[in-house]
Amino acid sequence: MSAYLLLFGSSFLAATILPFYSEVVLFALLREGGEPISLVFTATAGNTLGAVVNWWLGRYLLRFQERRWFYFKPAQIEKAQRWYQRYGVWTLLLAWMPVGGDPLTLIAGIMRVRLDIFVVLVGLGKGLRYVAVVWLSDITPF
Question: pTM of the entire structure?
């Protein structure tokens, strides 16, 4: 149980702006004989939940858009949100990437992506990344 909590926690932290690598923990647990499918689900859940925190922070930033120091005007934000909802939401499938993935989840909050769509796209991308880690570790679970 503590191994799963460690994996969940490291996956959660890895989805934030903190420099953390959950793949290393997953790989170590696989080498210790952990059950691959359960480990993938645990890592995916933790990483996706961490991304939801970023999404929420992005949504929270919008509370400051009426302030004088806020860089973008409300009309600019609305225009960007419409475009992003139509075309940019698919970039969330790349939220698993080590460089640039976490900012995508923050931007999705600013762009007001619906939470259900966000969780599906981010969870799918992050889950496939963990499946790839298992596959590359030479352990055949699937």
Answer: 0.84
